[in-house]
Amino acid sequence: DKAYIAADPAVAALIAAEHEATIAYVRTPVGVTDFRMSTYFADVGDVSAMAVVNAAQADYVAKYVKAGMPQYAGLPVLSMSAPFKTGNAGVTDFTDVAAGSLALNNAADLYLYPNSLYAVKVSGDELKAWLEHSAGRFNTIDPAKTAPQELVNAAFASYNFDALTSPDVRYEIDVTRAPGSRIRNLSYRGKPVGPAQEFLVATNNYRASGGGSFPGLDGSKTVIASPDNNRDALIAYIREAKTLTRAAHGDSRSWTFSKVKTAGPVVFHSAPGMIALA
Questions:
Q1: What are the backbone angles phi and psi of residue 15, rounded to the nearest 5°?
Q2: Whole-number pLDDT of residue 103
Q3: Residues 6 or more apart from 163 whose CB is under 8 A from it?
Q4: CB within 8 Å of 137: residues ≥ 6 apart
Q5: Count of Cβ atoms closer than 10 Å to residue 236 Cβ
Q6: N or C: which end of the chain has fewer CB within 10 A?
Q7: Which 3 state secondary structure label does DSSP give 144?
Q8: 134/180 Cα distance (integer angstroms)
C-alpha cells in the first residue's frame, strides 16, 4: 500500500562505516571526459552515452581475438549497445554524465546491467536483420498524414534499441516503411555490406542468448563468452584512455533517419528543460 514504517536510527548508526565506505568506493575516479554523455536524445541519434560503450566492447573483443583466436583474426569487429534509460520510468530516467571526472558510479550509469560481454559471428544478412529488429523502436510514419504522429513506439523497450556507433559503418532507418524493411544503404568502409560477409559483433550475454527475440540470436552464434562484465570492460577502457574526448569517444554516429517530407509533424518526447542540449 506504499506505506513504510519509520527508519530505526539505531540501524543507521550500526552500518554507518559500511555505508560511507560504499559511497567512497563508487566515487573512485577512473578517468575524465571533456563532454557530457546522456541519453535524452538517443532515440533520434545522439550517441554520446553509447559510443564509448561500443568502443570499449569492440576493443575488448579485438584484444581477445588477438590473444588466442587466430581463426577470427581477419573478421571486422563491430559492437552493439542500446540506450538503457530513455524516460520509461519518468522524466528523471535518463543517463546523464557530466563533463569532468569519471567515477565508478558514472560507469554504472553508462552501463546499467550486470551483463557479461559476449561476441557473436554473423553474416551481412544477419547483421541487417539485427538492425531491422532494433528499428522496431519507431512507429510507422505516414508521410501523407497532417495530424501529429509519435516517432517512438513506447511498447518497444529502449534496451532493445541496439545501434552501431562505428566510423566504418553507415546505415539509414526509414520510418515510413513497415518494420522489417527499414534499414537502407548499410555499408562497411564505404562499400555495401554483402549478404554473406562475416562480422564479429560485441554484445552481451542477454542479447547473444536470445534476449529481446532478435532473429538468429539464440546462443548458436556465440564465439566469445567472456568471464568479464560489459561494465568492467568499460571501466578498464576508460582507465586506459584516461581522457575521453567527443571527437574520439562520443561522435561516431553510424545511422541517420532517411530524409522524407511529411505533411504533418512527427513528435518526439524527452525530459523537460533540454531544448538547449538538443
A1: -110, 15
A2: 97
A3: 47, 50, 80, 81, 82, 134, 254, 255
A4: 43, 152, 153, 156, 158, 160, 161
A5: 16
A6: N
A7: coil
A8: 9
CA angle, residues 118, 109, 130, in degrees to nearest 5? 40
Distance CA 166, CA 4 (A): 48
Q: Which residue has the cell 538468429?
A: 216
Which residue type is seen at 146? T
Asked if 136 and 179 count as a contact pair (C-beta separation under 8 A), the reply is yes
Contact 138, 174 (CB under 8 A): no
Grid cell for residue 238: 576508460
Q: What is the pLDDT of residues 196-236, one digit of tens each?
A: 999 999 999 999 999 999 999 999 999 999 999 999 999 99
Nearest Cα to Cα of residue 235 among 226, 246, 227, 244 = 244
Instruction: State how far the Cα of 195 lies from the Cα of 172, in Å rounded to an integer.
Output: 17
User: What gap in Å lies between CA 52 and CA 165, rounded to an integer?
Assistant: 9
pLDDT in tens, 176-193: 999 999 999 999 999 999
What pLDDT sits at residue 25?
95
Angstrom distance (rounded) from CA 86 to CA 120: 26
DSSP class of residue 141 equals P
pLDDT of residue 35: 97
Does position 46 have pLDDT exceeding 90, yes or no?
Answer: yes
Per residue in 57-66, pLDDT (tens digit) is: 999 999 999 9
Residues in the chain: 278
Residue 88 near residue 158, CB atoms below 8 Å: yes
User: Residue holding cell 523537460?
Assistant: 272
Q: How many CA atoms lie within 13 A of 196 on its CB side?
A: 0
